[in-house]
Amino acid sequence: MTAPLRVCQGALGLVVTSLSLFSCVSVGEGSGNVESTHLFAVDCWDDAYDLEPDFFAADPFRNQMHMRIQRGSDLIEVSDGLSILIDDIDAVRGQLGTPVPVTLPPGVAPPGIPVGTICGQAGCDSPVHIALYLLESCHTQNMVLYATEGTITFRELFSGDPNEKDAAEKLTEAEFDIVVGDPRGFDPSTGTIPNQSRLTGSFSFFFQRGQPAQPFP
Fold it and tell me: Do the bridges between strand 64-70 and strand 80-86 make them parallel or antiparallel, or are there none, so unpaired?
């Protein structure tokens, strides 16, 4: 595959669970679920899947943001989690409560396939991209499943200002219903990625400034 889309590192936002506890809880906390009734990953997974996330982070940089919804707080390279890349914070904050299409990042394509070929019906212009990384469950396969279609609805979205003082502006709440697959399996003859899986979930957390995060996988 071509090099995955990456976000410049900024100040990592770790989270707390409520406004009333904002100053006295551990970083990384939040609530959410990421599930599939049948997740397929070649040579790794072919069954129901429940991420059971317990670590939540946001990493803003200028008008972009990378979020990590993960099981455990280890490095991405040894963890399972959901990576969410927002290309335009202002655009998404202007659509709160409205489903936003989720597509592959424009730069993701298998070898020999022109960039942009498999961005889905919404094209490559969506401001939100999601990937499910299974680097604990499928550690020998280096497995990342990218969202090729579906939507995410933000009820609230952190302003993206690492120095934000208003606690209400630090809240992120969203729900999603997406289809994920491995672009490396793209079939040019049919124009599709086989063995895709439906993934649903939601999450809620507050931004709290911490250490630099990792780039989008």
Answer: antiparallel
Write down the pTM of the prediction.
Answer: 0.82
Is position 216 within any domain? Answer: no
C-alpha distances (whole Å) from 68 to each of 32, 193, 194 are 12, 25, 26
Tell me which of 137-141, 172-176, 195-199 is least confident: 137-141
Give me the domain span that covers residue 41.
Answer: 33-209
Render pLDDT for 59-105 as a digit per residue (tens, 0 to 9). Answer: 999 999 999 999 999 999 999 999 999 999 999 999 999 999 998 88
Calculate the CA 3 to chain-centre distance.
17
Enumerate residues 6+ apart whose C-beta is below 8 A from 61. Answer: 7, 8, 9, 10
Domain count, the chain: 1
